[in-house]
Amino acid sequence: MRFERFEEVARRAWEDIPPAYREGIDGLVVSREAVPHPELPDIWTLGMCDTESYPSEWVGPDTTRSVVILYWGSFRNLARLDPEFDWEAEIHETVEHEVRHHLEWLAGHDDLGDVDYAMDESFKRNEGRPWDPWFYQHGERVAPGMYAVEDQAFVELEFTPDAFESAREIVFEWRGSRWAFARPETLGDVHFVRVEGLPDAPPLVEVVLVRRVGWWERVKGALRGRATEVLESDVSNPSRRP
Fold first, then answer.
1. Which of 33, 191, 220, 237 has the greatest number of C-beta atoms within 10 Å?
2. Residues spanned by the domain of 162
3. CATH classification of the domain holding 7
């Protein structure tokens, strides 16, 4: 998509945002620049919400001002990597994403920043680079012990070593039903079990088995520089339980 057409679509996406949600945003800037991710290869920053807060006892549109920026060069580079890249859908999604950043700044939190962090760590994991094994907890908490990071779902289960060793199978809940698979041989500190064959499942569902430790044990481990033991395994077609 040529720059002129890109700018036209971006302006239309901006105008589609209700005015109440654009309050405190001074406008949309469409840049020709391509902005690479500072650490991850072939990842490009598509947009940015540049926010500045002014000293005040109140947080609101008068004291927190933003500018939404879209980078045409980044879109172009990403489109070269993906032949099915949908320019218009990505433009609209990016504009909405950056406006939400502004709204979360006004509310005093940044959930999208957490999701961005989780996605970065997930990408590092897929690339075989060092990654944070607790990244999924930065995603959206959709239910107790369940997290979503875009199209990935994580079901977290805690075990003491004794409880894990005495269990014959791992039982978890999915879509209102109970499912089970054979217990892995080793618990580790964090064990990601990729589960295939679940109904109505996103591309990735993982049951995360977490070794339960007390706060003092965790502190001692940190002081001694003990590395977290992270394991990964796969299961297919878990059994439904009544």
1. 191
2. 131-241
3. 3.30.2010.20
Is residue 8 packed enough to be buried (19+ CB in 10 Å), middle (13-18) or exposed (0-12)? middle
**pLDDT per residue over 180-231, tens digit each?**
999 999 999 999 999 999 998 888 999 999 998 755 555 455 545 567 899 9
Token readout for 219 is 């502190």
Provide the CB-side half-sphere exposure for 228 (13 A, CA).
Answer: 18
Residues 34, 174: Cα–Cα separation, whole Å = 41
Other CB atoms within 10 Å distance of the CB of residue 38: 8
Cβ(181)–Cβ(157) below 8 Å? no
- Show Cβ contacts of residue 188 under 8 Å, excluding neighbours closer than 6 positions: 209, 211, 229, 230, 231
Instruction: Please check whether residue 121 lies inside any domain of the structure.
Output: no
Query: pLDDT, tens digit, for every residue of 153-183?
Result: 999 999 999 999 999 999 999 988 899 999 9
| Co-location of 135 and 233 in the same domain | yes
pTM assigned to the model: 0.59
Q: SS3 helix, strand, coil % of the chain, rounded to 5?
A: 35, 35, 35
Q: 19 and 94 share a domain? A: yes
